[in-house]
Task: structure prediction
Amino acid sequence: MKFTVVSKGDEKSNTLSEKIRIYLQDFDLILDENEPEIVISVGGDGTLLNAFHRYSHRLRNTAFVGVHTGHLGFYADWMPDDLEKLVIAITKTRFQIVEYPLLEVNISYTHGNKESTYLALNEATVKSVEGTFVMDLEIKGEHFERFRGDGLCISTPSGSTAYNKALGGAIIHPSLESIQIAEMASINNRVFRTIGAPLILPAHHTCRLKPVTQPDFTIGIDHITFLQKDVASIQFRVADEKIRFARFKPFPFWSRVRASFIDE
Ligand code: NAP
Ligand code: MN
Result:
């Protein structure tokens, strides 16, 4: 089996990554950065986001594992102390695969007919570059509301514990194929109205944002932010692709939620 290790880059993560490389090659696994079947991310949840985007072109052939070198994470849920157990699990047992839904983002522009498509593991955020963010929100092709405020966050179930949670969104179990729209500081008064609550859409219910005033936006896809000019619309839906995690031991989602936010 071919594998690779992606490190956060700090000394602790680099040392651990090197150990994993040596152990796995001792067990006759092949180090292959280009076409790994298993990607071991060493660092934090942010490191796994990086690893995901590095290999997002071959999700069907890749299983991810996260080892944390800082605090417990949602994607990085193995402890460095369990390293030997993990190596034995990878080399000796047939691991289980757990699939989580992803978000597909499709941006079309007012000039030309090219479109850009992105996949997000946590979320996409849309904010204005200057002044109040104003966009019309459509759900399943029908006008829903005109949103004024700081921006919107559209998250996956596994991303619901990240930025979305800070915005008052619900935590969604990753077995529910869905996306969640959370508001960032909407303007609500006698003139302007938004729903004022997070919305959860099932698979195949697309939502679309259309600029009302100016067409330039700051878009965030997980840990990456960039500027998009001349936007005609942005469409969001549950992606056809999924991320696959290699599971060697049960660590249920709600236990991870409790261990991360309530107590360890
Ligand atoms: P970061 O600044 O290190 O991330 C902020 C925190 O979010 C870190 O503690 C990170 O864990 C954690 N995190 C990432 N994915 C998570 C998930 N699915 N569930 C629970 N916590 C999660 O930057 P980063 O590591 O590159 O991560 C990017 C993410 O940060 C974005 O996707 C967004 O969700 C989140 N973010 C949150 C806020 C907010 O809460 N107000 C604002 C901006 C961005 P690690 O330390 O293990 O990496
Ligand atoms: Mn981080």
In short: The two ends are 34 Å apart (CA to CA). The helical segments are 11-26, 45-54, 83-92, 163-166, 253-261. The pocket of NAP (ligand 1) is lined by residues 44-46, 49, 73-74, 76, 122-123, 158-159, 161-163, 166, 222-223 (CB under 6 Å). The first strand starts at residue 2 and ends at 7.
